Amino acid sequence: MKRTLIPVLFCLAFTGKSFSQTKSDKLFLKDGHKEVVIKEVGTGIIKYTYPGEEVLYSISKNLVDKIEFSSGRTEEFKSPFKEVNTLLDIDKIFVTFNPVEIEGLEIMGDLFSKAVGVTTLSSVNNVNNRALTKLKTEAFMMGANALFIGNQFQRGNQYGNENTPGNSTMTTYSAKAYSSEKLDTKAARALIENHKFYYHQKIQLARNGWSPSISIQESVDKELNPILFDLGEVIEKEGKLFVKPKDLKFKGESLEVIRIGDDMITLMDRTDKAVVNFDLLSDQNMLVQNQIKMVQLRKERDNQNSL
Fold this sequence. Notes:
By secondary structure, the chain is an alpha+beta fold. It folds into three domains: 24-78, Roll (SH3 type barrels), CATH 2.30.30; 87-179, Translation Initiation Factor IF3 (2-Layer Sandwich), CATH 3.30.110; 185-290, no CATH class. The chain contains four helices and 18 strands. The chain has helices at residues 2-21, 124-141, 185-194, 286-306, and strands at residues 25-29, 32-41, 45-49, 57-60, 66-68, 74-76, 94-96, 106-116, 146-155, 170-179, 197-206, 213-216, 228-229, 235-237, 240-243, 255-261, 264-270, 274-282. The longest helix is centred in the C-terminal third of the chain and has 21 residues, at 286-306. It starts with a helix and ends with a helix.
């Protein structure tokens, strides 16, 4: 009995020692961390397995904040993806020709941009920049902060003669828009279902236009109270939210929720002719509340003057 017991105890002790030596690494992402075993940290990709498994996974370094290795060493990574909240932020949009750099991001849709010079003396660089700016603008209006350019075509100025007409410089881009941040559908749904909204601003980019048009809305009644309305039923499709507000005019079947902020929400109407953003303020927004207070103070003052 003793001879049988000793080998068994030895095996158990050896097995326990092996398990204790297999420590996991920690892979920190924006939404939490994973217990993994890091296999390789490449130039753009991190490869890893889960403890006790052999299936190899990979993730873009751009999506990783840091790695805490089982040895105790920590390696941090700087993400190229920035917050893009207004049209003034479009230069922060990450642009790449390398598909590896956008792996794991949320795809927002396909894009095409074209810019043509006015004359055969037009600057090639200026026309290229105009096409790229338009591409970034539409990406922002789709809720994206990253662009993968799949194709770029550029034609220089072609000077004609008495028999052949000239052609001015032209640049076209075909791209896909991505976001490093998924829409918080739970928070967006709560905002929509628990508040009324004020129509604040409209941004529209025509397919053949050079730049977006911005119009501030004056949605007030006769007493200058802000007009507030419901967004109606929330429809969820493939992780995206849509609404059909009766108080807004739009071309598509519904409006997509692309961005939420502090007491505000942005809805998108995208067709083959234009992309439109509706910027709405909730009834708790400071601008809306200040407008309501101003009307109340005016009424109180008028009542006092009438006495």
